TrEMBL record:
Organism of this sequence: Rhodopseudomonas palustris
PANTHER family xrefs: DNA-BINDING PROTEIN, PROTEIN, PUTATIVE-RELATED
Transmembrane regions: none
Domain PPC, chain residue ranges per copy: 8-146
Protein known as: DUF296 domain-containing protein
Gene3D superfamilies linked to this entry: Hypothetical protein, similar to alpha- acetolactate decarboxylase, domain 2
Top-level taxonomic group: Bacteria
InterPro entries: DNA_bp_PD1 (IPR025707), PPC_dom (IPR005175)
Entries under Pfam families matching the protein: PCC (PF03479)
Amino acid sequence: MQHRKLHDDGGQTTWVIVLETGDEVMQCMQRFAEEQGIFAAQFSAIGAFRRVVLNYFDWDAKQYIRIPVDQQVEVASLTGDIAQAPSGKPALHIHLVVGRRDGSAMAGHLGEGHVRPTLEIVLTESPTLLRKAYDPESGLALIRPSTA
């Protein structure tokens, strides 16, 4: 993983983060957020994976269903945010759409993604803290602007 600060103005910082073959996205992004102390950001990315696991939230069961995709795929769209989890650590929330060789697409939350050959991420950090709070209806920690 390589990264570089592109711009910093009044606490709003833009970063470029480039992952390479073999990097796992969730681990790299979590480490980056923790090392840089990022608790409010949004990001997007393009690239490709050699293998990815999508997660689909089953509302009735209140749990994620894992959908492994064990093939090379293009990242057609990857968007996400970072907020502070109830634990105090940065919390990633990433959605993506991947395209398969036949042109079909699959989408969901990113569970894990193994890069090949690259994933190019542009992240914009906000100077304001963004917090998540436990939501009893869903059983998830969700962003609550009122807790910022």
